[in-house]
What we know:
By secondary structure, the protein is mainly alpha-helical. The chain has 16 helices and three strands.
Amino acid sequence: DGGVRQKEVIDVVPWSFLREALLNMLTLQTTGPENDSSIFFFLFPFQTAIFLGSFRLPYEEIRDIVLQVDEERLSEALIQNLIKNLPEQKELSNLAELKNEYEELCESEQFGIVMSSVKMLRPRLNGILFKLTFEEQVNNIRPDIMNVTFACEEVKKSEGFSMILELVLLVGNYMNSGSRNAQTFGFNISFLCKLRDTKSTNQNTTLLHFLAEKCEEKYPEILKFPDELDHVECASKVSAQILKASLDTMERHIQRLENDIQNFPKTEDKQDKFHSREQYEKLSTMHKNMQKLYESLGSYFAFDPHTVSMEDFFGDLANFRNLFMDAVRENHKKREMEEKIKRAKLAKEKAEREKLERQQKKKQLIDMNKEGDETGVMDSLMEALQSGAAFRDRRKRTPRNGKTAYICTSCCFTFNNAFK
């Protein structure tokens, strides 16, 4: 290289130009074991330079963070970059042989020499990465397990849901009386969602709306079952296959981690605190308990839990729960509309009746005998005065002489105010 050291070149030449020049140069290299180390020493600076520039930590401090598994200073990004940019253990061992020339090496190679002192570095980094992401994995899995567990318990304990099933079976057997399906002992849970599709003969209501109405009239305790199945909606979104696959992946990582820990050489470094955690066992126990509860539901409702998935079972329950609540609300709206129409009809009939009465009384007051029977007129007038009908709809007017007069529109007579 003409006596020019790598560090001086790397510090001056922009990375983008140096990388391109290096790739072109490597295409001209001959293959063979004697060239492997030289190719590695050219590649290694490019793999770690950007990484070191972004974190700006002393090399010994990065090494100690890894040895101590210091979670306060460890980050997922740091470990991922180390796994991505550091070479394999064999290459690190080759690099460690240059520790006597430490000051003459570039920064990336100096960093490699420092990290080469950590035994089984790559398995250790993989284990640390799993440890850092373990809580996130647990937090993604645990809510699903708990939602299914709670949903299983709620479905089995809900008295309202048990009663609605009994009512559906009763109505179904009544409707099927005389057919081959009469006196059925049970039905598939998925049938609950089909109640809305069964309509009355006049097409004005459905079987589900009919059941909801009867529950309000006769069995109000049944109306509580949607609240008793609070976790069914969340449980319907849990995929048993994805949940099991996540747990299996976690188990494989833990098993590999345990094997790596057993293979770690004894260390005299008191700061080496690498160890595994026990949360998986708790999570696995919760998952097994969840599976047992779902299997017990299969026995309780007479279905095969291995063929009917949790998504399908709880999906049907969640759908029926929502449909039932919709039916109750729609029944309320229907009754309110009917009451509104009824009140409007009664008000209209009352108004028409009062109008007719006024017209009849008015007709009696102004109906004069064609032959001039004044007695009949006066009798009608006296009757109007006694009943007060003569003074309805009266209005004041001021005549030209300044005296106030009252006009009775009901009898068409005008009286001058003689009391002033």
